[in-house]
Amino acid sequence: MSGIIHPPESVYNLLPREEDDPHKPPRYVSKFRPAVLIETKTKKHSMRTMGPAAVEAPSPHNYLKSHSKESKSAEKAEYSKEARHSCTQKKPPVPARTDVPPVVFHTGKNFIKTVKIVPMKPKPAACIDIKGYKQVLEDSGLVPKYTKKKDYGEVPKYLQQRSQEQQRAQEDFENFVKDHREQAALTNLSEERRQAVLEGLKKTWDQLHHEYQCLPLVTETMSQKSHRQQLETKMTQVENDIKLIQRFKTIYVPKYTPKYREDYVRETTSQKEPMRSIGPLKVPRSSPKNYLKKQRKQPKAPQGERHVCDERKPLIPDSKNKLQLLRKKIDYVTTAIAEQRCTDRSRPQAIADSHKGHKYFPENSGLFPQHVHKKDYGKVPAYLRQRASEERNKLEGDCIQLHEQKEHAIRKRLQNQSDALLGLRRVWYQIASETSRIPLSMESSLIRSYKQRLEDKLLWVENSFKCAQKCLEKMS
Question: What predicted TM-score, i.e. pTM, was given to this entire model?
Answer without folding.
Answer: 0.23
